[in-house]
Specification:
Elements (H helix, E strand, L loop, with lengths): L1 E4 L4 E4 H18 L4 H10 L4 H25 L5 H27 L3 H33 L18 E4 L4 E4 L1 H17 L4 H10 L5 H27 L4 H22 L4 H24 L13
Antiparallel strand pairs: 1-2, 3-4
Helix pairs in contact: 1-9, 2-3, 3-8, 3-9, 4-6, 4-8, 5-10, 6-7, 7-8
Subcellular location: Cell membrane; Membrane
Keywords: Cell membrane, Membrane, Transmembrane, Transmembrane helix
InterPro entries: TM_pro_TauE-like, TSUP/Inactive_protease-like
Amino acid sequence: MQIYLPIAELSLDVFLLLGLGGLIGFLSGVFGVGGGFLMTPLLIFIGVPPPVAVATQANNVVASSISGVLGHFRRGNVDVKMGIVLLVGGLIGSTAGVSLFKLLRDLGQIDLVINLSYVLFLGVIGLLMTWEGIRALVRRRRHTPRRKLHQHTWVHGWPLKMRFRKSRLYISALLPLGLGFAIGVLSAIMGVGGGFILVPAMIYLLGMPTAVVIGTSLFQIIFVAANVTLLQAIQNQTVDIVLALLLLLGGVIGAQYGSRVASRLPGDTLRILLGVIVLVTCGRLLFELVSVPVDLYSIGVTK
């Protein structure tokens, strides 16, 4: 059954979109990630224009993050003060990122930038996830103790220090502010929450306890993704609400089944599987970038 997507300006099968949302929801439930860094490439694969895929996926990030952060608030796993500092940087970064998105779109380079960004980030993240999963698997079998996650470096001597009691940290506010800014730009250009980069950075760079990292990350992602969605809709008109609703419906259903599977698999195995999935997606994007298109020329109609 075909449905017309008014902003994407194409018709796609309803069940394909529901299935795609269900697949990403399932992976999100299994691996504990938002899935935005996989959803956007998959939308591009089925023909959705990259600018629409990015902006629409940012809308889905808001819904999934709200659902996740409520549970973390109930368990007291959100450092609100840290989240606000990250959020300030994120709002500035996402606003600048949407303006950069519009500039690149006007120059006709946004499709290339989106694809190259995904190839770069998915390649790096996929390799790191796979390598860390293999190392954890080897450590578990050899009973090797884990190294200390966080060590103080020269960046911890920066000025404007603040005390974050929930995270038991006394560090420069410039660190989370700059991190939030970078994630904001990333959210605008790639349509992701940025959790797959923000969470490791909060653990290894800021030194936050793992227990409060995910909830704090989701707290700031809600507002950053909402800002990206609003600005994309106003400035670039690239948010397709019909597409977003179908993906969201499938994602809610898929996440329920994914969480059941996750409880039966060890963490290191999950990291390896996710790393492989990310690398496969990266390989497909890279292939499409370097392969010769079927139609070398197209005829445009000027209105």
